[in-house]
Design brief:
By secondary structure, the protein is α+β, with helices and mostly antiparallel strands. Helix content is about 30%, strand content about 25%. It contains nine helices and 17 strands. The strands form four sheets. An eight-stranded mixed sheet has the order 4-3-5-6-7-8-9-10, with helices on both faces. β7 and β8 form a beta hairpin.
Length: about 350
């Protein structure tokens, strides 16, 4: 990448321009989706700014409440949630919202309703705020058939019905990765312009990677296929070099690295958490959607992750996502176990 030349580029592809270009390919579209996305982008800019000055503004620490996931809420969690809820309702394009921070879904006032449902985690990895590790916002967007009679069952759609998904990572730079169903693009916030600029066009994950990402502290509780796969990563029997372990513990950061460099991210079910730990609607689905759009795969241990039909809004699931060939290996190990247990 020629950074010197980039510094003098004047033809900048901003995220708004990119989405408008996508919109112009669909003559029937009325711009509602573009408006919704611009409000999500605004929320991301606000949170990026708050994260940058969190230590100075006493935003780090506990807010004294516990959220629906029984985690003590950080002040920034609470702030980020408010920002996104207000931005999404204010867009006039949503009818129902599902947030990691709120026990119940938020049904928008009928006068302000649009046709979209947004499921989001306003600040994923927030336990890492205090130590300066990358954290992020994850979101998925669905269409609702009848906005005037929307119910909870309209929200519980399989991931394959998602229209768009993305995440915004607040780290050494602020990066927004987005897919509207035709590939994956990455945008970086230019603080001097206050705009997200296209820096990673058409992201494609390598077919096979050299990195695996998992919390090995849970190893004693893993099932046989996961234990076998990790063993194979560390001690390959085919003469190939062992894979490197990289685990940040912030899903956005771990998935972002996996998307760019290849490899596999695992958060399996285990004896302690038989249904896995990550939430389906606003963690598993958006990240699986992005992975598939970039040419990778996503698997729950039983099925393709995007085929899962959730039964409640904070449902959890195991997840294996990343490079196509690496996930294929995990699927083969689960198929082998299923075959031997049915024999």
């Amino acid at each position: 990448m020629d950074h010197a030349a980039d510094a003098h580029r004047t033809d900048l592809m901003t995220i708004t321009r990119h989405v408008l270009n996508e919109q112009s390919r669909n003559p029937e579209s009325r711009g509602d989706f573009t408006i919704l996305l611009s409000h999500i982008v605004l929320g991301c800019k606000f949170v990026a700014s708050a994260v940058n000055k969190a230590g100075l503004a006493q935003l780090i620490g506990l807010a004294g409440e516990t959220n629906v996931q029984a985690k003590e809420q950080k002040k920034l969690d609470v702030l980020s949630n408010e920002v996104f809820v207000k931005a999404l309702i204010g867009s006039g394009r949503t009818c129902v919202l599902v947030s990691e921070e709120d026990e119940e879904a938020t049904f928008v006032d009928p006068k302000l309703r649009g046709k979209y449902c947004v499921c989001f985690d306003p600040l994923d990895g927030s336990s890492n705020i205090d130590c300066g590790v990358s954290i992020g916002t994850i979101f998925g967007i669905y269409m609702i058939k009848d906005k005037d009679n929307v119910t909870l069952s309209d929200v519980l759609q399989p991931g394959k019905d998602m229209l768009a998904a993305g995440y915004c990572m607040y780290g050494s730079s602020c990066t927004l990765v987005l897919s509207t169903g035709s590939g994956v693009n990455g945008f970086t916030l230019d603080p001097s312009l206050g705009e997200f600029i296209l820096t990673h066009p058409d992201i494609k994950i390598p077919k096979k990677g050299r990195i695996y990402s998992v919390n090995e502290g849970n190893a004693k509780n893993w099932d046989v296929p996961v234990a076998k796969f990790v063993e194979k990563c560390k001690y390959p029997k085919d003469g190939s070099p062992p894979k490197s372990l990289r685990y940040i513990g912030s899903m956005v950061a771990d998935v972002h690295r996996t998307l760019l460099y290849g490899g596999v991210f695992l958060y399996p079910a285990d004896q302690k958490s038989p249904n896995g730990k990550l939430r389906v609607l606003y963690e598993v689905f958006p990240m699986s959607f992005l992975m598939e759009q970039a040419g990778g795969q996503s698997f729950t241990g039983k099925e393709r992750a995007l085929d899962l039909v959730p039964t409640k809004i904070h449902e959890r699931s195991p997840i294996f996502l990343g490079s196509y060939d690496d996930v294929e290996e995990i699927k083969a190990l689960y198929a082998e176990q299923a075959k031997s247990s049915s024999a």
